[in-house]
Amino acid sequence: MKNSASRRTQKYWLYFPLVLMSLFFLAPMYIMLVTGFKSFAEVDLTRMWDLPQGIAFDNYIEAFTKLAPYLINSFKMVIPAAILSSFLGSLNGYVFAKWKFKGSDIIFPLILFGMFIPYQSILIPLVVFTNTIMKPLGLSGIPSLVLAHVIYGLPITTLTFRNYYASLPTELIEAGRMDGADMLGVYRWILLPISIPGFVVVLIWQFTSAWNDFLFAVVLTGNRSWPITVALNNMAGSQIIAWNVQMAGSFLAAVPTLLVYIFLGNYFLRGLLAGSLKG
Amino acid sequence: MTKNKDRYLNLLLVSPSILAVAIFVYGFIAWSIRVSMSQWKGLTADYTFVGFANYISLFNDPRFLVDIRNTVIFTLVFVIGSISLGFFLAVILDQGLRGEAFFRALFLFPMAISYIVTGVVWRWLMNPAEGDRISGFNLLFSMLHLDFLINKWHTTVTWGIAAIALAAIWQMAGYIMALYLAGLRSVPEELREASRIDGANELQIYRYVILPILTPVSLSAIIILGHISLKVFDLIIAIAGKQYPLDVPAIYMWQTTFDGLFYGRGAAIGTLLLLSVAILIIPYIRYTLKNEAQQ
Amino acid sequence: MKKSIIFHFAVVLLILSTILAACGPASNEVEVFSWWTGGGEAAGLEAMIKVFNAEFPKITFNNAAVAGGAGTNARAVLASRLQAGDPPDSWQGHAGQELIGTYVKDSKIESLNDLYKAEGWQSVMPATLIPLISQNGNIYSVPVNIHRANVLWYNPKLLTDNGVAVPKTLDEWFTAMETLKGKGITPLALGEQWTKMHLMETVLLGTLGPAKYNGLWDGTTDWGSAEVTTALENYNKIAGYANTDSASLTWQDASQLVVNGNAAFNVMGDWAEGYFRELGKAPNTDYGWAPVPGTGGTFQFLSDSFVKAVGAKHPDAAEAWLKVAGSKAGQEAFNPVKGSICARTDCDKSLFGVYLQSAMDDWASNTVVGSLTHGVVANDSWKSEIDTALGAFVGSMDVNTFQAALVAACKSSGPCK
To answer: Using CA atoms, how far apart are residues B278 and C262, in angstroms rounded to an integer?
Structure first.
């Protein structure tokens, strides 16, 4: 990659809009962080920009104690859900983009449409399904939640991968076929390795949406198996809400997701290198 | 084209997904439509057929009209704002600046924060109090002598929902940035070099070469953002509670169904929501698919 | 490849969690649904659970509480489970039409007459309360606490500094607020939509008086009458004295304005008192209370109560829980911590703080009417329709349209013809 000296100096002015934007993104995070360190009486609209009167970790300790038992539930649910739905989405995307069958141009929009279904309107049939079919199989609770996230994640993962693969040139596939691979082989050996940016984007989405989901979690699990989002909501309380503890807890609950972003973010670079196409 | 073995293997691979969607999406939608044409009110299921009575009462309902107006405003502001900001950030970060990883994580972090807290923080930030109780962004603006920016945010008459869209943009722009970044990274460098050799400057390269290639990404982004804006519920409740001027179909549906126990009417709202999506999205998708087939 | 390791790991996790899920609890337990998950509410519940564990050591208490203001989330979960035929053993509900019009109407909860007889609660629960939780002679829930809705909170210093006396009638209130407004003080602190419904119901009570107020809910008072028009106009006038940013404030933010000295008056239920104390404020110094002007001598109440599910998996355990919820020990453990008064009339007064003691006196002597916002006088559908009408009214301030909508709501979901 040519990087002439002039282009390098040209780039420094880009930091200006970048930092400006960063301030927009940081403002709410600052409030969240600062409130997490305040005492209950300090939580006040008029003083929201003020720094806390002392850095006490009480809120974080209280939040952690209340949330930690449910952390494992979240992981048990999110990891299978994110991986399964990403993988299935990738396969579907491949078929709909490069390996079409008769009617696939109609079926793809039909699958996509599933993304728009408002979850509130299907709560009841979902609960009925879980109780009549999943519970007798001993699969209620977290397995049901995983199933729900995988199924309702299919439309968006399929969409993302389908569009990602559609933008790859067909010569790739042809080259693989000519080397003797069948369609599945082309997927395994050619497409999968360069799908990393696609997986990064999809995993980020699926992990976040499953991790932060509240509606399915509260309805499909009982208090022994509910994930961290329900515990977080409960920590708020119903009538008198302790925002200082709530914000500390929210920050803690967001840390795993942030770590996932950082970890996956490294693949943005690697994907670039792995994806350098050679003719 | 495909060999015989391949011809059926592809169908086999997607059939679990097709089956799942058939049951869990279309099967449930069918149930919902059935409920919407019933008079079910209360905890006991009552499927007595009443035709389109629920739908008719909705169209005569001023609250539902408020919902539609709010959805249109929210969708426009949210989708256009998120895509513009996301693309803008992706282009900047694509330049290989130092600290890219930090900025990437920073812009993505809002998506990781729970909606309860996002909602409350933005509610505080957008507080419209004046005089000695001024706070939030308004306070910042007045301290920076940018008084002309002070406004009533989400309590503004009619357009208040646009302020909530701002909070939503804050939350989602990072993800759109990630989508575009992934797309930009898959554009072969040779293509850019060739264009540079042809004499194009960076701006022209982005406009005439890269943007068209990223069309599938833009399609993904529009659909993802569109589906969020049509279903937006948690964020609005966290910021504004259940309040009439900021009502949207998803909240109305929740209130009608679970607070008011009027299942028939709630299902009608849900069905109308889906119908409006179908009318907008499906032609758009078919048009895009046709375009791709031509390429 | 790294991916296959992750995949295998995920599969193992999936299998493990399936096995763990299948080994469910087998011992005797009672699953109790509530929305008491934070702060004083949770602490009060914990105290009551302690009493339960001491009395019934063999039964495990399964605390299935889900937070959400006044149980909005818990009720959605509850509704879904009831639809699927999988009710919890007992759940929390606001005493009154919220229970009767919803759960009794669809036969989801059991009649508790035998329990009341066995525990002798007929003589201990207030006589005005029992008809409100019964239908056709059957009592359906065990009230644990009583909250008062028609309380006017005020900042004593702001009032004395500006020569304003605590108003007793609506006219005195208007005058007081006009004076304060003239001095540049926000007269009334108001919050988001539901707090406006709360204000409205106290104004309805203050304008109509208890008898006609009750008539609104049993069909004997005409919603279209001139008196209701006056009440709605009063509401408009009062709301005009409120802070302009009310739509963006929760009840907590609004009440806080009073103790911070930013507003003089606030109409809110007496859970605000618990909040004030948590903020470290002192009664009578930092905040004072009085009945909402026009409602002196009337106690507008709401009550949290527990029910027994039809088809409960552990009916005996559910009854054990109800016994504790209705017992003197249980209520004395719960209420001082929660910040409410006992539903029973024989609780030990010395356990309670200054405000609560005065509330107990009022509860014993005042006329009792029910709250609208908190589920006593109207069923859920009716309340939801009133809420929609109120939402439109807040923006338009058009009394005629609002009144017409209220008449329609009564016909659609209430007893009006």
So the answer is: 50
Does a structural domain hold residue C17? no
Q: Residue C19: inside a domain, yes or no? A: no
Options 3.40.50.970, 1.10.3720.10, 3.40.30.10, 3.90.79.10; CATH for A66-274 is 1.10.3720.10
Q: Would you give the end-to-end CA distance of chain B in angstroms? A: 17
* Interface contact flag, A238 C76, Cβ < 8 Å: no
Same domain, C154 and C270: yes
Find all residues with CB under 8 Å of A79, minimum gap 6, and list them: C9, C10, C13
Q: Note the pLDDT tens digit of each residue in A88-135.
A: 999 999 888 888 888 888 888 889 888 888 888 888 889 888 888 888
B:89-128 residues touching chain C, CB 8 A cutoff: 123, 126-128
Q: Which of A271-275, C114-118, C153-157, C350-354 bottoms out in mean pLDDT, i.e. has the lowest?
A: A271-275
Distance (Å, whole) CA A15 – CA B164: 28
Which residues from B are below 8 Å from A107, CB to CB? 14, 18
Report yes or no: C193 at the B interface, CB cutoff 8 Å: yes
8 Å CB contact between C261 and C128? no
> What residues of chain A lie within 8 A of the CB of B231, using their CB?
116, 118-119
Domain count of the fold of chain C: 2
Arithmetic mean of pLDDT over chain B: 86
Cα separation, C152 vs C150, whole angstroms: 7
Please say whether the beta carbons of C306 and C144 come within 8 A: yes
Q: Which chains touch A (3 or more CB pairs under 8 A)?
A: B, C
C90-94 sheet: strands from edge to edge:
C60-63, C29-33, C90-94, C304-306, C142-143
What is the separation, in whole angstroms, between the first and last Cα of chain C?
73
Looking at residue C349, which CATH number applies to its domain?
3.40.190.10
Q: Is C338 inside any structural domain?
A: yes
Q: Would you call C70 and A238 a contact, using CB atoms and an 8 Å cutoff?
A: yes
Residue-number span of the structural domain to which C388 is assigned = 148-301+372-413
What are residue C138's DSSP bridge partners?
C135
Confidence of residue B281 (pLDDT cuts 50, 70, 90): confident
Residues C328, C347, single domain; the answer is yes
Looking at the structure, tell me whether residues C247 and C191 fall in a common domain: yes
Extents of the domains making up chain A = 66-274
Percent of chain C that is helix, strand, coil (3-state, to 5): 55, 15, 30
Instruction: Supply C85's token pair.
Output: 């035929």
Q: Which of B28, B35, B43 to mutate to test the interface with A (most CBs of A within 10 A)?
A: B28
Do C184 and C213 belong together in one domain? yes
- Quick count: other Cβ atoms within 10 Å of Cβ B27? 14
CA distance B12 to B15: 5
Together in a domain, C361 and C377 = no
Phi, psi (degrees; rounded to nearest 5) at A253 = -65, -25
Give percent of chain C with pLDDT exceeding 70: 93
Å between C18 CA and nearest CA of chain A? 6
What are the tokens at C292? 């909402």
Claim to verify: residue C64 and residue C117 sit in the same structural domain: yes
Query: In terms of domains, do C294 and C306 share one?
Result: no
Domains of chain B: 14-294 (1.10.3720.10)
Q: Is residue A274 less than 8 Å (CB to CB) from chain B?
A: no
Which of B32, B9, B258 has its CA nearest to residue C102?
B258
Q: Cα(A129)–Cα(A137) distance, rounded to whole angstroms?
A: 12
For residue C384, the chain B residues in CB contact (below 8 A) are: 255-256, 259-260, 262
Q: Exposure of A178 by Cβ count < 10 A (0-12 exposed, 13-18 middle, 19+ buried)? A: exposed
Does any domain span residue C265? Answer: yes
For residues C40 and C160, membership in a common domain is answered with no
Tokens of B28: 């449930």
Quick check: ipTM above 0.90? no
Interface touch C380/B261, C-beta < 8 Å? yes
